[in-house]
Amino acid sequence: MKIIISESQFDNIFLGNRVMVYYNLHKHTFSISHSGKVIMHADFVKLSDVEFRVRHGGREKVRDEKRKNVHAFVIGKLEDYCEFPCDNVVPPNKGIIVSYDPYKNESFVIKKTQEPVFSAEIVEMVNLKNKIYIIK
Fold first, then answer.
1. For the chain, how far is it from start to end, CA to CA, in angstroms?
2. Which domain holds residue 80?
3. What is residue 62's predicted lDDT score, i.e. its pLDDT?
């Protein structure tokens, strides 16, 4: 018996799984990886049980070489997404904006206060000017 997986079923295989997300500077969108492999690119990502992680060796390399590399991730359970290119990306109407700048910060920070942030219940990431929002 041959099992046929429709495109919509395939898209939902990763919902509920723990993923790592980073902003892809070459594609100008988010890359979502699972088990060490990029599984998709998305303009909107919603994660729960979130950890903000910066690999300090990568951050130091950026500072030394003045050249960006992938070393900062938002990790969590994939709740929702809109695959790249997504035509209807809108920012959350409320939430705390989170940012990361390897030249200024050692970790992700709350943009308004520059206070370090390491975890959150729910985060929405949108491919707009402000990219990461803590919703809960």
1. 45
2. 7-134
3. 79
